[in-house]
Amino acid sequence: MSSYQELTARQRIPAIFDAGSFEEFLPPSARIASPHLAQLDAPVSFDDGVVVGRARLDGRLVFGAAQEGGFMGGAVGEVHGAKLVGMLRRAVDEQADAVLLLLESGGVRLHEANAGLIAVSEVMRAMLDAREAGIPVVAIVGGANGCFGGMGISARCANTVIMSEEGRLAMSGPEVIETASGVEEFDSRDRALVWRTTGGKHRYLMGDCQVLVPDDTAAFRAAAIQAIDAISTSGAQLTLEDLLAEQDMLARRIDLAEDLAEPVEIWTKLGIPDAASVPMLDADAFLELAARHRMEQRKGER
Known about the structure:
Elements (H helix, E strand, L loop, with lengths): L8 H8 L6 E3 L9 H5 L10 E8 L2 E8 L10 H16 L4 E6 L9 H20 L4 E5 L7 H7 L4 E5 L9 H8 L9 H8 L1 H7 L4 E3 L3 H18 L5 H18 L5 H8 L12 H19 L1
Helix pairs in contact: 3-4, 4-5, 7-8
């Protein structure tokens, strides 16, 4: 078992894609770095914190990107976002079989906030354009920095989100919420609370993540292949029915979580037996519990 979380972006690429198949666009040798950081005397990275290119995944032509959490937490700036957008547009031009995004980002860089915000909006539009062209878009979230801010929204534009328990997904990060609303609202130092609220298990139970796997590169690779196969069969396009179902899910979530302050309380209201034990379950035991719960729900709806 090889931990996905512990790898860098460049280490994740050969672990997920077919061996030796990745062809990088704009590698570090091209020296394409953010001009804004240099103006502020901030450190730069010659890939601007993201690796993009084309590869094979189980033989399929797949375009992919991997964000580097070790550089500014994977935050998005103008060049970083432009590389993602360019890769997505090229995937459409070359009629790729799929796009696979290995996301790890704290959101938009404060150093270049306006440019970063525009870049993220263009990434989302490019993701939806790829889906409209019939190209499955799959997002993997399993890095130590999680997936927050604009990239948290972008992840939910994918057909399928695959997470590990250790991965985290949300709009605002814990520190941002605490700064804006106070520690009483969300204590970012309570790491157990942070993972209960933004981690893979909660996102899976709430419907934000469709697949949960152990923190293992082989498990992520297998799940990505299965997701692409399933999407290729069902269709990648975003339909009106999909949007209505999403809105219905969000409305039900608001009703479910009203006046509740703790994920365990939400899990209990969902009907999860012994909800307090969920954080301690390994991935397989948790998925078995979730499957039993969903089966009971279906029986109750009949």
